[in-house]
Amino acid sequence: MTLPRLVTEIPGPVSRRLQAERAQAVPPGFGVTLPVFVARATDSTLEDVDGNEFIDFASGIAVTSVGAANPRVRERIAAQAERFTHTCFMVTEYEGYVRVAQWLNDRVPGDHEKRTGLFTTGAEAVENAVKIARSYTGRPGVLVVDEAYHGRSLLTLGMTAKEHPYKTSFGPFPADIVRVPNANPLRGRPVAEVLAEIERIVDEHGGEAFAALVVEPIQGEGGFVVPAPGFLAGLRTIADRHGIVLVIDEIQSGLGRTGRLFASEHEDVTADLLLTAKALGAGLPLSAVTGRADIMDAVHPGGLGGTYAGNPLACEAALAVFEILEEPGVLEAVADIERTVRAALEPLRHEIGVVADVRGRGAMMAVEFADPDTLAPRADLAQRISAACHAAGVLTLTCGTHGNVIRLLPPLVIDPQILRAGLDILVGAIRTATADPTDPEGEA
Ligand code: PLZ
């Protein structure tokens, strides 16, 4: 069978009918990338209620890394559901929580003693990392990076950079958040200059102002920006110099996504606190703060928690994810995904001027569209190409502060042939859109 398989117009009649009901039941504040309703999934595809099967280059935004219907995940969740679905870990305990904590403590980089606290969403992990860092340091300030994304709760929105649609009309945001420049290799200044500027900003506030410096090792929503080499190590040095807790947000980049368990391993940088979510629960809501025991232990008993934090079904899903990630060949396959994506997209960078960059690591790859002379972002192209992919049966996502980046987040277990089929469609869509004579800004 060839994939993708399209048997109706997109969206099909059943999806359209459900869409009309949704519009009555759900406010428009919730957006949608591809308005089809999903019936079932495989390791590589999503099938909608009209029988169309899409190649999945989204993984539910880097969540279903082991596939959206992984049998091992399903079995462990089902077995746990037979036993019990919830107790609240703060009321009575269960073993799965401790096993998840132990696995993360063993695998998160750094030889020091570690502890892990579990939460529900990524934003909650970020908020709790800030709480823990404040408790440990006794300081208020939080340093964040240009183009960063850390969530949609009010503290994390204050930390997120992009104004629209995330922040528009939702302020005021919490105080004491200070933004520093990013070492974006395509658009930023040289890394030494950026680090000097950050050092200056920290000094300006007095070194004692900041509890935490929070950074994504590869920015996700911000545009899949792989920082210039030396940036993360430079931040580590600045954090050490001023006694600031370095929080590495691996919510999107972590747990095998980049071909290593953690993206920060590529730069050999050790976090004080490292955050995971998304792929951790394979779709069941679970997030974690893992870090130095002395920092984690600084919080008073009872200071951390949440009704659903570390839910037992989600912990079982995580234990299945861990088993799968440690199977021989799984992380190697992620390196193959990167090679396949680069082989398909890198030639375009030389052929087509508006293909400004092909970047990323492992199964976290992206292509950026911008004017070749001015680097002015071409969101119109990214949107048009992504829409063409959707119409042809490939679920792509866009990202970037300017919306001009197409990102690829296939399941780590995607079938290599299906990956190539999806890339063929993407490459065709890029060629068509960039050759379009109606494009006012012309080709390359
Ligand atoms: N930190 C690095 O990528 C979530 C956002 C989807 P939550 N990214 C997807 C959307 O539009 O809401 C994310 C992230 C990084 C934190 C978060 C927040 O994780 O689980 O969405 O709260």
Alpha-carbon distance between the two ends: 36 Å
Helix content: 25-40%
* Largest beta sheet: strand ordering: 4-10-9-8-7-5-6
CATH superfamily of the largest domain: Type I PLP-dependent aspartate aminotransferase-like (Major domain)
- Oligomerization state: single chain
**Mean pLDDT metric:** 97
Q: Please count the beta strands (DSSP E, at least 2 residues each).
A: 15
The CATH class assignment of the largest domain is: Alpha Beta
Explain this structure.
Belongs to the class-III pyridoxal-phosphate-dependent aminotransferase family. This protein has helices at about 15-25, 60, 70-85, 95-105, 120-135, 155-160, 190-205, 230-240, 295, 310-325, 330-350, 380-390, 415-435; strands spanning about 40, 45-50, 55, 115-120, 140-145, 175-180, 210-215, 245-250, 275, 285-290, 355-360, 365-370, 395, 395-400, 405-410. The chain has 2 domains: about 15-55 and about 330-440, Aspartate Aminotransferase, domain 1, CATH 3.90.1150.10; about 75-325, Aspartate Aminotransferase, domain 2. The radius of gyration is 22 Å and the shape is globular. With about 450 residues, it is α/β, with parallel strands linked by helices. The longest helix has 22 residues, at about 330-350. The strands form 3 sheets. It has a 7-stranded mixed beta sheet, with helices on both faces. A 4-stranded mixed beta sheet has the order 1-2-3-13. The protein contains 13 helices and 15 strands. It starts with 12 loop residues before the first helix and ends in a 10-residue tail after the last helix.
